């Protein structure tokens, strides 16, 4: 009989410590330890009998089995999955509370009329789910709703209903009666996922786990769970904006390169198959401090709108604030402007904001950020229909970026007739692109920008 002992488990990475510590030595997170009960196998009971030899097989003799994926009704979802749901796979869908994870999944399964689905909810009542389904407005006779949090009962119900797809909403609400830790703790989340995985693999049924993320943007017990599941997707966006991005963090059956784009509407989510200009507000044309750039998201290019504000500071140390853009990178761009263009920013407050509530990590946006800062500094609007694509080096050079051809074509398609790019990339461009202005460094850029514009 296994005994139980109290241990402290990091809720972020699953690291176990015999006593409480303030900082996890494995993942460096603070105050992440919670006391949990763990069963201890009595020592000395390990089998000493000799194992028999297994069968190793030559790689050339392995027959590859074709995977028949379950096609979901949304191409945006399928593309991110790598072509559809893989039977027997565990997919974790994370996102902040209220972002629309449950809506996305419910809407998807309601549209899957030829598949028997079991939607297990520990979050909402049957009535709430019914209301949500009515709002979505799709009728389905093959979708079962089960409100329960006990994983043993859930597994038993799965066995009796025999669904073709299982949804767990959310993985933090389900718990095993065999463990004394509360729901949402690393041990519970891991154990429940393990039990579901056993079933999923044995019967080749895909399971979608919905998980809430904490304030740091991690799914509770994320690292420990990410190892177990086959794919992890983040559903991103913010409550003030309509657009939602479905972004893979891990995918055993596809690339982590593609994104899916949806728009939140009154009834639910609508997929956006042509998202090139969704992040442009269209409200700020002709204002100083506004610049347009591009970001590469998987096989797609999205146009972004950057707003900067440079103003006199009333504080001894001026403020530097960036929203949606890496703050250290923003500081670096300001330093380059100061040093290489001679603009005095040391007594100025500097703010930058990416419209649309997304986070930009693509360095190809550097040149657009620089252009918006310069525009705000002089309080002069940038030339119309102009966009900026380039990475900034510390010495002020404008460096090449990936997929320049695609970015310029997309900018042209969306009406940007002037596109500033790195001079080093001019030869890479397709003949069909137009309005390209190659620049080698920030001085060259400033000279051409002002000659072009004002
Ligand atoms: Zn940790």
What is the rounded Rg? Answer: 26 Å
Low-confidence sequence ranges: none
Strand order of the largest sheet: 6-5-7-8-4-9-10-11-12
Q: How many distinct domains?
A: 3
Summarize the main sheet.
9 strands, mixed
CATH overall fold name of the largest domain: Rossmann fold
* CATH C-level class of the largest domain: Alpha Beta
Helix percentage? 10-25%
Bound ligands: zinc ion
Per CATH, which architecture of the largest domain?
Answer: 3-Layer(aba) Sandwich
The average pLDDT score comes to 89
DSSP helical segment count? 10
Distance from first to last alpha carbon: 82 Å
Give the class from helix and strand content and strand pairing.
alpha/beta
- CATH superfamily caption of the largest domain: P-loop containing nucleotide triphosphate hydrolases
Number of strand segments: 21
Shape: globular
Strand content: 25-35%
Describe the model.
The protein is of the alpha/beta class. 25% of the residues lie in helices and 26% in strands. It has helices spanning 75-81, 101-110, 126-136, 151-161, 186-203, 222-228, 327-341, 366-378, 404-413, 442-452, and strands at residues 3-10, 16-17, 33-40, 90-95, 117-121, 143-147, 165-169, 207-212, 231-236, 243-251, 260-264, 269-271, 290-297, 300-312, 320-323, 348-354, 386-388, 391-392, 398-399, 418-422, 436-439. It has a nine-stranded mixed β-sheet with strand order 6-5-7-8-4-9-10-11-12, with helices on both faces. A seven-stranded mixed β-sheet has the order 15-16-14-13-17-20-21. The longest helix is centred in the middle third of the chain and has 18 residues, at 186-203. 40% of the residues are buried. The site of zinc ion (ZN) has 9 residues, from loops.
């Amino acid at each position: 009989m296994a005994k139980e002992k109290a241990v402290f488990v990091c809720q972020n990475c699953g690291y176990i410590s015999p006593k409480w510590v303030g900082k996890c030595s494995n993942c460096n997170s603070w105050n992440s330890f919670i006391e949990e009960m763990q069963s201890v196998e009595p020592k000395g009971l390990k089998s000493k009998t000799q194992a028999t030899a297994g069968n190793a097989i030559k790689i050339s003799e392995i027959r590859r089995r074709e995977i028949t994926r379950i096609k979901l009704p949304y191409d945006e979802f399928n593309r991110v999955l790598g072509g559809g749901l893989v039977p027997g796979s565990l997919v974790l869908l994370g996102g902040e509370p209220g972002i629309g994870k449950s809506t996305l999944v419910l809407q998807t399964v309601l549209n899957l009329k030829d598949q028997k689905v079991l939607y297990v909810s520990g979050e909402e009542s049957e009535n709430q789910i019914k209301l949500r389904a009515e709002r979505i407005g799709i009728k389905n006779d093959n979708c079962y709703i089960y409100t329960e949090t006990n994983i043993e009962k859930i597994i038993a119900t799965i066995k009796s209903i025999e669904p073709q797809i299982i949804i767990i909403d959310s993985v933090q609400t389900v718990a095993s009666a065999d463990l004394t830790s509360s729901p949402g703790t690393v041990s519970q989340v891991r154990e429940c996922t393990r039990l579901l995985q056993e079933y999923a693999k044995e019967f080749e049924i895909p399971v979608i786990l919905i998980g809430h993320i904490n304030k740091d943007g991690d799914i509770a017990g994320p690292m420990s769970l990410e190892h177990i599941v086959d794919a992890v997707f983040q559903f991103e966006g913010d409550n003030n904006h309509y657009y939602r991005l479905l972004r893979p963090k891990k995918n055993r059956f596809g690339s982590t390169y593609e994104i899916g784009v949806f728009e939140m509407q009154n009834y639910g989510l609508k997929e956006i198959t042509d998202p090139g200009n969704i992040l442009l507000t269209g409200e700020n044309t002709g204002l100083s401090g506004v610049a347009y750039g591009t970001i590469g998201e998987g096989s797609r290019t999205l146009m972004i709108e950057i707003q900067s504000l440079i103003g006199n500071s009333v504080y001894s140390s001026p403020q530097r604030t960036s929203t949606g853009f890496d703050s250290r990178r923003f500081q670096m761009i300001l330093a380059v402007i100061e040093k290489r263009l001679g603009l005095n920013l040391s007594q100025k407050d500097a703010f930058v904001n990416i419209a649309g509530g997304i986070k930009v990590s693509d360095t190809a946006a550097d040149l657009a950020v620089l252009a918006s800062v310069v525009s705000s500094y002089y309080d002069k609007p940038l030339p119309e229909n102009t966009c900026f694509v380039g990475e900034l080096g510390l010495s002020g050079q404008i460096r090449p970026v990936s997929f320049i051809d695609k970015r310029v074509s997309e900018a042209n398609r969306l009406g940007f007739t002037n596109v500033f790019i790195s001079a080093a990339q001019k030869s890479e461009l397709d003949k069909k692109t137009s309005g390209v202005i190659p620049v080698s460094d920030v001085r060259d850029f400033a000279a051409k920008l002002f000659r072009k514009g004002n």
